[in-house]
Amino acid sequence: MRAFISAFCLSACLPVAAQAQCGGDFSAFVAGLKAEAQRAGLSAAETNAFFKGVRQDGRVLKADRAQGVFRKTFVDFASAVISQNRLTTGAKMAQRYDAVFDRIERDYGVSRGVLLAFWALETDFGQVQGDFNTRDALVTLAHDCRRPDLFRPQVIAAAQLYQRGDFDPARTIGAWAGEVGQVQMLPADILRNGVDGDGDGHVNLKGSSADALMSGAKMISGMGWRRGEPWLQEITVPEQMDWAQTGLNHSLSTDQWARMGVRPRSGAFQGRQGAVLLPMGRKGPAFIAYPNFEVLFEWNKSFVYVTTAAYFATRLEGAPRLDPRAAEPGLGVEQMKALQKKLAARGHDVGPIDGILGEKTREAVQREQARLGLPADAWPTPALLAKL
User: Fold this and answer.
1) Which of 190, 205, 220 is the last residue of a domain?
2) Does a structural domain hold residue 347?
3) Which residues form the signal peptide (predicted)?
4) For residue 249, is it within any domain?
């Protein structure tokens, strides 16, 4: 499920020589990886054993280029992945691993709802962990020249996990992008954040739920999670307000939001500072995103995925089902690509022209809406596309 790889490792992973090499003859490329693994501390015998039988996996490249699930709207995606069965199972897992979650909350300050949500969305509570050979997937992606600076260090990290007895290169399977285990972590993240939660002397994120949950909590904590603070809360917004103040790039005190007419849908505001989040514009669902919400983008870069996971986490901790309201119709994939091209032509950085409404595209949309005198709620509509 983590089709958008965390950028957390990009700068923090194991060091590589100036510019990661990629492409070219595959055998020569693997020879370069072997030399790098030995420089990282593996013996020649360990290196040869780790890379024995390595091959390119065409299915990995196909999956890497087909991430259309994140072109869904927030409501569509959330409706598809948050089922009553998952809510019921989440409650059962919270009870079954209550002692583990107590340790997590004590040691790392991460709320159980957040971990339960990622556990469910990543692998259906460990039931669907992927069927790609992890070593081959990582080597394939490192050889591919799209993101070698991310994946080459992961190959070396996997080799180091093998060296310490926590990775079987021939049998370890996981997601297409090299994530392993019940909460889907990359090898370098496991090296840095792996926790032996069940006390058996090994970090086994595939077979041990305690190891997986503790490791995931340590990683989230290291990303900057604020102990005991909220992350997302559903709100109601007035018919009219300064919509240009909304979005993740605008954070105000909850007192300021209250003066504009923003109200929690139930209860009181849970934090003192946050951003008003309108995933589908001013007429769709509305949330206040507290500082912990942005930490979750270190786990996954997809706006829709993170918003869904954060909302799911609140449901797992007792929040009511959201009010979907009546959002204005959005854009189809080709319309979104056309919009992104128009925004890029006007000098906005929207990232790849991929038909996905990510945060960069949202910010550009909001700026253009403000320029054109439209409600600047960052939700692109056919009317906006026509005006551009």
Assistant:
1) 205
2) yes
3) 1-20
4) no
Q: Is residue 303 part of a domain?
A: no
Overall size of the chain counted in residues: 388
Domain end point (choices 205, 234, 265): 205
Which residues touch 214 (CB under 8 Å, ≥6 apart)? Answer: 100, 103, 104, 107, 195, 197
Please report, for residues 37, 39, 151, 152, 193, the alpha-carbon distance to residue 15 in angstroms, rounded to integers and kept in the order given.
Answer: 12, 11, 12, 10, 17
**Closest-CA residue to 248 (of 282, 226, 224, 277):** 277
Instruction: Answer whether 118's CB lies under 8 Å from 296's CB.
Output: no
Instruction: Read off φ and ψ for residue 14, nearest 5 degrees.
Output: -60, 140
Mean pLDDT of 179-205: 96
- Burial string for 198-210 (b: 16+ CB within 10 Å, else e) reads beeeebbbbebbb
Q: How far is C-alpha 177 from the geometric centre of its chain's CA atoms?
A: 13
Long-range CB contacts (within 8 A, 24+) of 165-169: 165/202, 166/190, 166/194, 166/202, 166/203, 166/204, 167/134, 169/49, 169/50, 169/51, 169/52, 169/54, 169/135
Model confidence at 340, in pLDDT bands (50, 70, 90)?
A: very high
Per-residue model confidence (pLDDT) at position 17: 39
- Domain of residue 376 covers 333-387
For residue 222, pLDDT beyond 60:
yes
> Under DSSP, is residue 241 helix (H, G, I), strand (E, B) or coil?
coil
- The average pLDDT across 120-137 equals 97
Rounded CA separation 82/144 (Å): 34
Q: Residue 195: inside a domain, yes or no?
A: yes
Residues 52 and 197 in one domain: yes
pTM score = 0.90
Please check whether residue 220 is in contact with residue 6, taking contact to mean a CB–CB distance below 8 angstroms: no
**Facing residues of 288 across strands?**
233, 276
Domain count for the chain: 2
Are 162 and 37 spatial neighbours (Cβ–Cβ below 8 Å)?
no
Looking up tokens 């390119």, which residue turns up? 56
Cα–Cα distance, 314 to 184 (Å, whole number): 21
